[in-house]
Amino acid sequence: MPTESPRAVPASGALLLCRAEPDSVALAAQLLRRHMRLLPAGEEWSVLVSEDRPWLHGEEPVDRVLTGWATALAVGAPWPVLALWWDEDRSGYALASGFRRPVGYVWLANGTPAGEDEAMRTFAARLGLDPVLDMESLDALTKPDPEADARARLRGLLAVLTRVGAALPDGLAPGESADRLSAVARARPQAREIEWAGWRQTVRAELDVVDGGRLAQWLPWSGTPRSRALAAAQMAVGLPLTAYGLRRRAAGWSAAGALLLAHGALGLAYDLAHPRD
Length: 277
What we know:
This protein is of the alpha+beta class. The protein has helices spanning 22-30, 62-75, 117-126, 133-140, 150-161, 178-187, 199-210, 225-248, 251-273, and strands at residues 13-18, 36-40, 46-50, 81-86, 90-96, 103-108, 192-194.
């Protein structure tokens, strides 16, 4: 006899909001080695909709998977990543930025706040939101409100982000099922398919951006002090993260650790093979 509610699967969904243009996000997203759709989501924002959904098969909760993916994306890029997720019981977010510990907040299905107020203040600070006007709106999301369920709380969060340029495409909204999100993303003419094309093509794509790209100084092939420091840091963080994911059988964290290890190792290997004068 099945142990899950028949509504649990269609009620689950997730989105990855990146504060960067699609061209920049496409490079980092490919390294996740997941099948995704990438769309613009406002001024200097992009959204990723995953076609691979391990949380629907009982492998790992959706919040843990998305936090791992967001962490992996943000560590290898100079822009933050916001994971929005929901299932039948809860909704929430996780904001990853560089090597800093992700910050998140959770609401129960009926909208009851189940997070710490400090998380909202950290969230506002890391995204450069207005410490007065925006913080007032965010603070309201941490207070009881019988008229707002968990999905309404996420919509309120997104309303605050519109003030810094974020705007999800129509149809990509908190509360939609994973299948519905995928269908909407596939139907969008500006959607870009992100698939793992192998290391050779990924390296070639990154090399194409080195000359004059905004991310050039961070790429492992640029040979700058920043790229070497980033590669070493990725190795240092990736090893324990991978071990943690394997020990806990956490697919999201294992993927994040493996990505960091691979990207860091490639960066260091390239630097050793091409010593600087």
